[in-house]
Amino acid sequence: MKKRVFIFLISAILFGGLQAVAQNPSGIPATAKLADEDESMAVYLNTDREGDEADFELAQVSVWVFDKTTKRSRRLFQCNPKAEYDITRVNKINGSDIPYIDFVKIWSYAEQPTLVVCGTLPDYHNLSTSIVDVKTGRAIMLPCSSGFVGFDPEEGNLLVASYAYYDEGGRYAVIKAFDVNGRQLGSMPLKSK
After folding, report:
1. Residues 136, 125: contact at Cβ < 8 Å?
2. Closest to 96 in 3D by CA, of 74, 118, 85, 80
3. Can you state the percent helix, strand and coil of the chain, rounding each to 5?
4. 0.85 exceeded by the pTM?
5. Nearest to 145 by CA among 178, 167, 123
6. What is the percentage of the chain residues whose pLDDT exceeds 70?
7. Which of 119, 124, 135, 146 is nearest to 180 (CA)?
């Protein structure tokens, strides 16, 4: 009886693993996980190299896109945990200058294929948010410290959060709206004092 259960478990693991491999489109690594998709594309994240939390080292993650129309897949970019960053202003960068990736969202309101890429920064205190053009891999890192909030349902603009400090101490959130070109359209402080 124990032998049958063991064989069943091994078979389930093997066939389950093979099934998971078959689900990724051709060209996408078998270890990649689906991050987001819409009617035109699917986006996958793959951990290429694990980080070492004991040394405060972030993992190296790559972004893969699958075009559902052409049935082609490609690696868009791989993050660089050692990349320099500045979240106090708008920065035009390459996708490979994004330090880390926690998650990716397709910006379905944008006219061209665009991704919103968010990730923990090496200081483990702030989150970055970048707008990435899928065609070129060029990115715009936004001036925000608390990451992605969502999309404005009326205008389709990107909403991110930052924090600011009260004069007397403590901090509060500030919600900022950006267009696809990284231009800040407005902000709203969420003060409770």
Report:
1. no
2. 80
3. 15, 45, 40
4. no
5. 123
6. 87
7. 135
